[in-house]
Amino acid sequence: MRIGELSARTGVPAATIKYYVREGLLSGGERRSHNQVEYGEEHVRRLRLVRAMVEVGSVPIAKVREVLAEIEEPDRDLDSTLGVASRALSQHRVPAEEPAAEDLELARAIVRGRGWHSIDPDHGYLWTLADAIGRLRELGLADMVDVTGEYARAAEIVAEFDLSLLANRKERDEILEAMVIGTVLGDAIFEALRRIAQVEVSSRVFQRGQRKQSGAEQNLSTVDR
Amino acid sequence: MRIGELSARTGVPAATIKYYVREGLLSGGERRSHNQVEYGEEHVRRLRLVRAMVEVGSVPIAKVREVLAEIEEPDRDLDSTLGVASRALSQHRVPAEEPAAEDLELARAIVRGRGWHSIDPDHGYLWTLADAIGRLRELGLADMVDVTGEYARAAEIVAEFDLSLLANRKERDEILEAMVIGTVLGDAIFEALRRIAQVEVSSRVFQRGQRKQSGAEQNLSTVDR
């Protein structure tokens, strides 16, 4: 197909497609004549993947390139590829300095509390977690540290759903693509649902539901569905 | 205190403090003499709040200014202030165009499925959710749409924890500050825990735990703790 059709099918303007080719996010099409370049189905799929990262995930171009390079590296094993891609797609930085010992211990206690025994005690995301805990403490908001593990319980529900989707897939490329999209769109979906749930729970807590509906009690009775 | 002490107590370099004052994120200190400016405890607290948004949440300066303006607007009611701040702190954009009807219907069905009856059917985050659903469909990954509502169930657990923390607070400023910090650090904490949980669940699914430990069964037996 010509660039016009590729643009129409993906919703990406032709100028942006050319920019992605220059930036190495997309292979160039096959040149047929002086002013005709032919693109295939693999370009449609790749462009949608890039668009999901850039538009939904607000992933910077340099990181998109990094993730795509990981996907295309045939020799790397699946597990470490997933790890590298997961880190590249993180919105939140792993802190450069080791967090305070007490914060790291608290982060490890949350993980142990869930019975997560496969986690390296120096895993990068444990540092991210410890860093966030340290900031809450600094801000005098130590009561916001989720020592009860409710966040971890919720994260496990999400991770089990995520992994069940990967387990349905067999080809390496399929698994990696699903993982990248699942990470980016999953973060967006969870963020939206967390905000929506806050509105809902807030209306129960502050009993504002009563004015609009037959009563807050009705809401409360549906919590555990 | 002098700017040097303010810098030491918050970990923010003096040049950055001056930049934040110029950008209106922090009120200037009290000028005592030609070259001495005095800062107080309110500057320490505000700087930590700004730092949490900028460093942990990667919130752009213009958005930080928007959130702070909301916090300082005394006439606005708490509920709408929380809404504006929540939107400003979103990492993911609300789509500019109305999503496809089928995607929006699916998003509403997920919300109804949880018994969330207080949500406006045109809530901005329902659009974000529908947009993500549409992209999964476009990418041929419709099976990734969480029709079973596992993400929503997890989001409700997190939102109930979040709201319980706000309910502990009485002063308007306290509630808003906790909400801003809880949103930014809560996103970071959940993101880290989701990635950690993926490693854990992945090691169970792919049985890699067996090499390091006494058996994957041991992990499985602790799932529901």
Description:
- Two copies of one chain form a homodimer.
- Chain A has helices at residues 3-10, 14-22, 41-56, 61-72, 78-88, 101-113, 124-138, 150-167, 172-205, 209-212, 216-220; strands spanning 30-33, 36-38.
- Chain A has 225 residues and is mainly α.
- Chain A has three domains: 3-56; 75-89 and 169-225, no CATH class; 90-166, no CATH class.
- In chain A, a hairpin with a 2-residue loop joins β1 and β2.
- In chain A, α3 runs parallel beside α9 (172-205) and α6 packs across α7.
- Chain A is elongated.
- Chains A and B meet through α3, α5, α6, α7 and α8 of A and α3, α5, α6, α7 and α8 of B.
- Given the C-alpha coordinates, what overall shape of chain A results? elongated
Order of strands in the sheet with the most strands of chain A? 1-2
Which structural class do you get from the secondary structure elements of chain A? mainly alpha
User: In percent terms, what proportion of residues of chain A is strand?
Assistant: under 5%
Oligomer: homodimer
Task: Please provide the ordered H/E string of secondary-structure elements of chain A.
Answer: HHEEHHHHHHHHH
Task: State the separation between the terminal residues of chain A, measured CA to CA.
Answer: 49 Å
The chain-level mean pLDDT of chain A equals 82
The overall number of domains of chain A is: 3
Helix content of chain A: 55-70%
* Largest binding interface between chains: A-B, 96 and 95 residues
Report on the biggest sheet of chain A: 2 strands, antiparallel
The low-confidence parts of chain A are 208-225
Overall strand count of chain A: 2
Number of helices of chain A: 11
Q: What is Rg of chain A?
A: 22 Å
